Amino acid sequence: MVAKSLAVAVLLVIASGCATPAPGRRALAEGWIEEAHTTDGLVLESPLRVSPQVRALVREKVGYAGTEKSRLLKLVRFMGEADGLAFQYQTQSSLTAEKAFAARRGDCMSYANLLVALARTLDVPVRFVRITQLPVTWEAGGRFFESSHMAVALGRNASWDQAVLVDFGNIHTSPWRFSLYDDVSDDEAFVLFQNNVAVQRLLAGDLLTAERILRFFHQHAPRTPEVPNNLSLVLLQTGRDREAMDLLEASVEQFPRFRPLFANAVQAARRLGDEDLARTLELRGRELLEDEPAWNFNEGMRSYHARSYSTAALRFEKALSADPDNVRLLAWSARAHLAAGNLRRGLEQVERIRSGPPSETRSQLLEDLKAAFPQLEAPAPLPPPPVAERTG
C-alpha cells in the first residue's frame, strides 16, 4: 500500500455463531442472515453450522461418556492429535466451523468456531471469550492490524473443578487466565465474525463485498466500533476521503477509547488537506494512545515514508515493546534502523528474525530485507587481533 493510504484496520479474531437461543427467542444472527440475503443479496455464512456427517463423526470418535469437562478435553485432544484432526495454525485465516474442519487448519477464530460447534454437538455448554488486554499485532502491505485473541470457555472461575479455558489447544484453569478474557454474546460474536470476513475480502482486493458487509452491520450493529473503523478504511482506499472523514469524526466521538479510529481519522484529515484537524486529532490521540502499539506503528510508518528513519525506528521500537516477538514488527524496525544508518541495531533485529522458528513469512521478510540492504549479505568484519600488554 502506498504511503498516502496508511490507515489502521482492526481484525478482531473472535469466533461467532448461533448458540441455541433461549426458548421463544430467535437469535439476531439468524434474522441478519435472512435479511441480508433478502434485501441486499448478501450471503452471510453461519460460523457454527456443521454437516450431519461431521456431527456423527465427532459423536463416534469422542462420544458422550464422562462429565462435560471430560468430553471437552477429549474433543480438544481429538482436534489436536495426529490420529484426529491434527489441526494446524494458519495466520489470518478465519473460517467457519465446517470449512475449518475440512481444511484442518485456520487461525484462533477458526479453531474456536470448530471447537464450539463440535462441543455443543456433544452437549457441552461452551461459550466464546476473547482476550483484549493483550492484543496480537500484525502488518500486511503497510497496514497495521490488531487482533483480540479468541478462545473458548466452559464454566466459571468460581468452580475450578469443572471450569476450563481452551486457547488454541492450550488448557488453562487458573483464575488469572480467566481474568484476562471477556465473555462475548453470540450475537455480538456474529457481527465480529462478519467484520473479520469483510477484512479478509478487503485484503483480497474485493472492496465491493467488504463494503457491503460493513455497511450492513454499521446499520444493524451500531455499537460495534470495529465496523465503522474498517468501513472507513474501505472508503479511504476507494478515494472517498470526505465520507470517510465524516464517518470517523462521528465514530471517534462515539468510541473515544477505540485506538485505531484515531489513526484513520488523522490520515483522512491529512488526505483532505485539513492539517489543523489532523493536528487536533493527533494530539488527542497521543494523549490517549501514546503507549499503544497500533498508534506507534502508524506513526512509524508515516515517519518512514517521510524519510524520517530515526523517528520511525523509535516508533517501531515502542510498538515492539508491547509485542516483542512479532516478526513483521521486527522487520519494519530493522528496515528503519538500517535506513537510518544504525547498522548495529538493524543487524540485531535481523538476527532476532533469523533466530525464530522457520516459516515462509520469516524467509520472505529476510529476503526483502536483503534485497533492500545488500550489506546484510556481507560477512561480519573480523575482530582485531589481541594486543599483548607489557610492563616495565
Describe the overall structure.
This protein has 392 residues and is an alpha+beta fold. The chain folds into two domains: 6-20 and 27-224, C8orf32 fold, CATH 3.10.620; 299-375, Tetratricopeptide repeat domain (Serine Threonine Protein Phosphatase 5, Tetratricopeptide repeat, Alpha Horseshoe), CATH 1.25.40.10. It is built from 17 helices and seven strands. The strands form two sheets. The chain has a five-stranded antiparallel sheet, with helices on both faces. Strands 1-2 form a two-stranded parallel ribbon. Helix 10 (241-254) runs antiparallel to helix 11.
Gist?
The protein is α+β, with helices and mostly antiparallel strands. It has helices spanning 28-40, 52-61, 68-80, 97-103, 108-121, 175-179, 186-203, 207-220, 226-237, 241-254, 259-271, 275-289, 293-305, 309-322, 327-339, 343-354, 360-372; strands at residues 88-89, 105-106, 127-140, 143-154, 164-167, 170-172, 181-183. The longest helix has 18 residues, at 186-203.
Characteristics:
17 helices, 392 residues, disordered N terminus, 7 strands, 2 domains, Serine Threonine Protein Phosphatase 5, Tetratricopeptide repeat, globular, C8orf32 fold, single chain, alpha+beta, two-stranded parallel sheet
Number of strands: 7
**Strands of the biggest beta sheet: in what spatial order?**
6-5-4-3-7
Number of domains: 2
Largest sheet: 5 strands, antiparallel
The helix fraction, in percent, is 40-55%
Order of helices and strands, N to C? Answer: HHHEHEHEEEEHEHHHHHHHHHHH
Low-pLDDT stretches are 1-25, 379-383, 387-392
- Category by helix and strand content: alpha+beta
Report the C-alpha radius of gyration, rounded.
24 Å
Query: Given the C-alpha coordinates, what overall shape results?
Result: globular
CATH topology of the largest domain: C8orf32 fold
The share of residues in extended strands comes to 5-15%
